[in-house]
Design goal:
Distance between the termini: 50 Å
Strand content: under 5%
Number of strands: 0
Number of helices: 1
Radius of gyration: 15 Å
Order of helices and strands: H
Amino acid sequence: VPPSTSGCRQPANHLQQSFPEMRIKSSKVRGLEQG
């Protein structure tokens, strides 16, 4: 696998993992604001 391909895959996986975390954090923040 070329280094350029692996370099492109790593950020993509990181973004995919961070999106759910951001949603969870935003939901928690909203819950704290409402509570």
